[in-house]
What does this fold into?
Amino acid sequence: MKVICTEKSQILATRLARAQKTTVVDVKYSRFPDGELYLVAGELDDETVMVSSVVDNDALVQLLLLIDACENSDIRLVIPYMGYARQDRQDRKGEPLSARAVARAISRGVSECITVNIHEPDVLRFFNAPARNISLARDIGAYIKTLNLTNPLILAPDDGALAFAEQVASAGEWEFDHLEKTRLSGEQVTMAPKALSAASRPVVIVDDIISTGGTIATAAGMLSAQGATDVYAACVHGVLTGGAYVRLIEAGVRDVICSDTIERGCSRVSAADQIANALQTRSNR
It folds into this structure.
């Protein structure tokens, strides 16, 4: 077995290869003058673990090309971050179900698919190969333990992320809650933990994805005003679009923590060990 990856998943791929005690196949990437992508993969094995986060359209095309280049090997596809996965429903006639379109495209020619904290697990049914999802919630929790925070409150940004917050909190047997919005007037809204107090303790706001960071940035200021000693933000997928990292730090967030499913300067947690564990078994429909 060898590991191979697309261009924007190189760090995670090398960490996974170390965990698997194998090597990473060299891939040469280039672009034609008209903008079309091109790649050449090195020597493959009978079994190939392909690591590719779909972080943008180029990454998606690279993945499709790499799957085709490896067609003579048994491909086990690992998708640490799957772009388009949040487009999982059709709100009006004529709209594509984009998560389905992408899942179908990237699962042709592979024997199984492994995703990491996919935003909506129901998307797995769209893959043309057996698919399963793994979680880094406890790994995020393990990293938070290294911060040596005293009595931290693990806080989800909404009730939809409460289960994720609970999993993170279980790593340290910490209290957890979710933010609740209260409208004070036509324009004024406040946010606070639904049941627990943030006063005189550090707060870690956790979610599977941080995209624009707007909600967390707003909440950080309010939590500080409510007496939180520090506010941290932690997630699996640090999309951090539109200046989100700066927005969070300027809003008073002490640190932003994410994993290497999307490779960032603040990627403190690796998905490599969880993926290696998942690869020990095969997916079934």
In short: The radius of gyration is 20 Å. The mean pLDDT is 94.
